[in-house]
Amino acid sequence: MYVLLDPLGFGGHVSLAFIVKPVMPQTLKSPLPIAKPSLPYKSPLLMLVSVGFCAGLFLMASVWLFNAKLGLASSILTMVMALISLVFLLIALRVYAHITLLLAQNDQKHLQNALIQAKDMLDTSKQLRDDHIILQSLVQNLPFPVWLKDRLGRYLVANHAFVQQWANGQEPKGKTDADLLNAQLVSTFVAADEAALATGMAQKLDLRLDFSGQAAKWVRIERYPLQGEDQQAVGVLGFAIDISPFKAGLNDNSAGFKTPPHPEQQ
């Protein structure tokens, strides 16, 4: 489909050609299974409770025998019960000390893991910052316009070439096509963005810009939908490339392959 437009109000016109290219869907990775929490202190705690219960039980028995006053046998049993209770109490103290040591080791391990994670986060943050600087430098130094929009058509990112060639030096972030472009181009650009978001497929648009006193200029604009985790389009990535030399070469080749006139017509 071709439409004649005046993109910047200089008396020229634009020829629009739409080409649709499918975009391969992205696959989502299944989430990792959630591990069940473990209880590393279950056995020592059960042992501590059991030993403490036995120590208390034998201590109560020794007290009962002491108050019963059943003679010499009662005194001997009282001493035996008291000694057994003391042994269980010492075992309980040993188990408690073991649990305390395990807790201290576990705290130390968690502290070490926290320090390692903090270091990894700092390294990752530095790497992300370096990658961002490299990517930003790469995008900003591209000789052709590149931009990123959200679903509402607002510009999120645009490089220097876009600002100079398409936005007349204005800062495009947060603005829409209606704020930056000629009104005759806005509807066409918005329709291409909506088609990319709705179909999930790339949209290609060839424009021929004819201005008075200037040579015709062909520009190819490509838009690609960006998909989120739910496979829904969340924005549009676009760029524009000057294809005037390519179009001129096609015209020259077409002129060279014209059929010569019949001899009778000469």
UniProtKB/TrEMBL annotation:
Domain PAS fold-4 residues, every copy: 140-246
Does the entry feature the keyword Membrane, yes or no? yes
Q: Which keywords does UniProt give here?
A: Membrane, Transmembrane, Transmembrane helix
Q: Which domain of life is it from?
A: Bacteria
One Pfam family in the UniProt entry: PAS_4
Q: Which InterPro entries match?
A: PAS, PAS-like_dom_sf, PAS_4
Q: Which residue ranges traverse the bilayer?
A: 45-66, 72-93
Q: What is this protein called?
A: GGDEF domain protein / EAL domain protein
What organism does the UniProt record list as the source?
Reinekea forsetii
